[in-house]
Design a protein that fits this description.
One of its GO terms (cellular component) is plasma membrane. The protein is mainly alpha-helical.
Length: about 400
């Protein structure tokens, strides 16, 4: 029996990390990697590129609400499979898009996959992983974004000028992971404490949601225009700018340590310190865009910080919404996406009007302000309840 539980935990962790990688790292955030090529192909200005990214985040917002409700009704497996299907369809649409309008549709569908992915995976870990391991596994699964970004960079280099070939490769990877998810994620009802009723704003929720929104707004600059700034402002070559993206993704895998970071520092201190790091990296990428010895480590700091912050938000949410973790994670990640949906066109507009440096400094200011919003003491790991959100099967 113990061996079965261990195998199930490993399967959920590996498959969940892979689903996050294809949904976030490929179907959603790889758009920023290809913005220079897409702007040239479809004659897009900065504001339009930002609006397309914003539409992706808007699709995410709708999808995460649907996923939160659907997971509570039908459990994790069918919703996780739906996320993989959306990632596959979105990347295939981008690869085949003949016009900017169809490109936008593909970006929206691909972005929606991320909203479908997070709630069922959080629920699966809450339900099937022992409580003393849950925080670490939640953070490891969440770090799949970095793995996906890491994969997208080399694929882009291998495809060279054929950006469509890169997106077809992303579609093939997404399809394979979708099949894996169908077998790896157990079926059954969602993890719910018997007799519990979800409160939309339980104690601590306003702080969580404000902080999540600030993370979304501040991160939109690099995710949407990071590589474009390196090329247009810094004169970086395709190889150099893609290298920064690869390093960003590789460092993002370190975000899987968010659970350990929260345990050692407390969620509040960890959140503030990491938001400051995110803001500093954002400013550095714009101010020193022409210095590769600076931008490469700045990209690494941004990647590690962003993934760690989403992991901290996830853990924060599972504590504030302890009775229904899928709902809480959905709410927090919804507000991250709302912030990104608002931030992407704003950063694009500021960049067109005042220049990218000013736009990125505005994003930095939002990150610093968001770092001041910290969890209540009761939501810190050392003060949180250690009770399971639901009985552990097996």
């Amino acid at each position: 029996m113990k061996g079965t539980v261990v195998q199930r935990k490993l399967a959920i962790t590996a498959a969940g990390l892979s689903l996050v990688a294809v949904c976030y790292g490929l179907a959603r955030f790889a758009y920023g990697l290809f913005v220079p090529a897409l702007r040239e192909e479809f004659h897009l200005d900065g504001a339009t590129a930002g609006v397309i990214a914003s539409a992706s985040y808007a699709g995410y917002c709708v999808a995460i609400v649907v996923a939160s409700l659907a997971t509570q009704r039908w459990g994790a497996r069918p919703v996780a499979v739906a996320a993989g299907i959306a990632a596959t369809a979105g990347t295939a649409l981008i690869a085949s898009a003949p016009t900017a309008a169809l490109l936008a549709v593909g970006v929206v569908v691909g972005g929606s996959s991320t909203g479908l992915a997070s709630p069922p995976l959080a629920d699966a870990v809450a339900k099937w992983v022992p409580a003393h391991r849950a925080d670490r596994i939640q953070a490891v699964v969440n770090s799949g974004t970095g793995a996906g970004v890491l994969v997208s960079g080399p694929v882009a280099l291998l495809a060279d000028d054929s950006w469509r070939a890169a997106w077809w490769a992303f579609a093939a990877i997404a399809a394979a992971v979708t099949v894996w998810i169908a077998f790896a994620v157990p079926g059954g009802p969602a993890a719910v404490t018997p007799g519990s009723r979800t409160r939309v704003l339980p104690p601590g929720a306003p702080r969580l949601l404000i902080a999540a929104t600030a993370l979304g707004v501040s991160s939109a600059a690099v995710w949407t225009f990071g590589r474009d700034v390196l090329v247009t402002e810094g004169g970086a070559s395709a190889l150099t700018s893609t290298l920064v993206w690869i390093v960003l993704g590789a460092a993002g895998i370190l975000g899987g340590l968010a659970g350990d970071l929260a345990t050692k520092l407390g969620t509040g201190r960890a959140w503030t310190a990491t938001m400051v790091a995110l803001g500093a990296a954002t400013a550095t990428l714009a101010l020193a865009a022409d210095h590769v010895v600076v931008t490469v480590p700045a990209g690494a700091v941004f990647g590690a910080s962003y993934i760690a912050l989403t992991g901290l938000a996830l853990l924060w949410a599972t504590r504030v919404y302890a009775e229904r973790p899928a709902f809480g994670v959905g709410a927090a990640f919804l507000l991250v996406a709302v912030g990104q949906a608002a931030g992407a066109p704003l950063i694009g507009l500021l960049s067109d009007t005042y220049g990218p440096v000013t736009a990125f400094l505005v994003a930095t200011a939002v990150a610093l302000a968001g770092g001041l919003v910290r969890p209540a003491r009761t939501s810190r790991p050392d003060a949180a309840t250690t009770a399971d959100p639901a009985p552990r099967p097996g």
